[in-house]
Structure formats: structure tokens, C-alpha cells
Input
Amino acid sequence: MKFFIAIDSFKNCITSKEANDAARLGIMKLRPDADVSCYEVSDGGEGFLEAFKPNEIVSCRVHDAMMRWCDSAFGIKDGKAIIEVAKAVGLGMIEPENRNPLIATSYGVGELMIHAMRRGCREFVIGLGGSATSDCGLGMLKALRREWHATMHKAWYEPFDTSWLKDIKVMLATDVDNPLCGLDGAAHVFAPQKGADAAMVEKLERRALTFSRMAAMRQGRDCSAMPGAGAAGGLGYAFMEFMNAKVESGAETILRSVQFDESLASQSVDMVVTGEGSADRQTLMGKLPSVILSHCRCHDVPAILVAGKVEDEKSLLEAGFSRVININEGLAMEHALDKDVAMSRLANAVSAAVSSI
Output
């Protein structure tokens, strides 16, 4: 039998590769002669760089969201720079007690871009997700402004000519379609996940409104209401407003880069295993498993969904998943987020699913 495995990371638990390896082990236990292909995947957040399979991964040093030096990396594929925002300003890089979206900065994202530009890259694919920031991309713009001053031999006090950024081509990969401002915007929806209390949210909202109004006057247009502008604490907005960035599904970006659909169409696949840490009705709103499902349905291939937590199982089944499996069903949750425990439970759950084929 032929199996494809494409499972997203379980946040703060296991990576996409680790999840795939566990599922593969579960299949091979029951069917040692099975033909199994694994695809590292991401919707733009954690694991995006590795999932893109760049020709080269370049190590570098940048500042994290708290302006501390950290090790980071970007990729190069066919002349394009592949950047995962979380590699520079990821929320997971900041200790819970130090998280503060009022001071967190996207400066390190600008530094990643500068490293890539110095390697000759002018086209970028940016994975937006998992950031600790809510600065509307101002930190990134400050880093790029500093590079512009140096490159163009300008005095530090000369205003930044943002038309310099129009030569950069940017594609944003994200599963977020929120605008910058409002109740569905970056501050109200995402800042509380990054440590903001109610007072911080209101202050961040005012900052976003002020910045977008001032930018609109300077740029002659306003991208703050565009879908995806609120991604990564407003980084999406900065890319759209100042670099004419386009937005597409992060999952589709990855699947295209690894030719998933072509492989699905050309091989006789019996089953696809996909999943994520927590599956619910939100999963069907453009998250990676739902994108995998849409490809499977086009080729009449059954897809099963595995997750560490499952809600709205009926909705998920009605959407087309042949099975929805909670790997922790009936088991103690005390150590469920331990890597070894999660991988073992994932392998056992997939084994049980395969045994019924």
C-alpha cells in the first residue's frame, strides 16, 4: 500500500518531521512492506523554512523580539530568499515572563532580509506566523532604513525613501486573513496570545491606527484593511504597504514547493495522513489539514486527521476526512506534551487506523 504523510507541527511539542516520523513508524508496525512518503509541512509558522526545502540554508545572527542577539537562518531557493519570521522574532524564543508586545520588535526580520539582500536576493517568500511582535512591522522597517542609509551613503537624519523597497518582490505565506485594525485585527485577536492584557491591547490598537493613517498619507494608499494585514502582529501590513507584497495560503506555498499535488496525481496513493496539534472547526478555515484534504478530494484519495486535541469532530468528518483521531483519547494528559509521549501516542493511533484498512 502507498501512504503519504503530511502532518503539521504540534505547537510546543513536536515538529512536522517528528510527527511524520512517528506516523510512519505506526504504519510500518502494521504494514512493513508499505510504501510511505513523508512531507514536512507548515502553514507559514513554525517549520516553514525547513518545509520549503531550500537549496541552501544560511546561518546568521540577528536580534530577537527583545533585541537580544540570537542565532537564526534563512534559505535560498532558485534565487529567492526564504524567511521564517519565527526564526528571528518567534514567540517561543521569549521566556513567558519576558513577553511584552508593547516593546517586542520585528527588527530581526529586517536583519534577515538584509543578510539575504547582501547575498543578491531581491525576491522573498516570507512565512508569517508564530511571532512575538505586535509592532506593525515598524522594527523591520527601522532595520531596512538603517541599511538604506548605509547603502545610499545618506546621513542618519535624512528621511527614509521607502520607494527603495519597491524593487523588492515579496510573497507572504500565511493562514491568517485578519486586517490590521479593529476587533478582528492584530491587537485584539493576537496580542493577548503574546502576553498583552486589556490595557495593552487598546494601546497597541491606537498605535496601529496611528501608524496606518500616517503611512497612508505618505504612501497614497491604505493596505490596513486587506486580508492578512494583521498577520504576525501587523508585519503583513508593512510588507503590503511598503513592498506591494502579495498574500497566499502558507500551506499551498509549501505544497507547491514540494510538488505534493503532482505526486498525489501521479502515484496510486491509498491514504494520506495529515494533522495538527489541535483540530476543531477552525481547522476548516484554511489551516494546513484542510488544504491537504482539498487536494486529496480532487484526486479521490481518503485522508485521515490526527491531532492531540479534537473538538467539533462531526464538522471535520462532514468536511470530508475519512477519520478524525484524537491521539490522547482516554489517556492521561499530564505528560501529553512531552515529545516522547506525543510521538508514541501518535504512532499507536496511526497503527490503529491502518489496522482497519
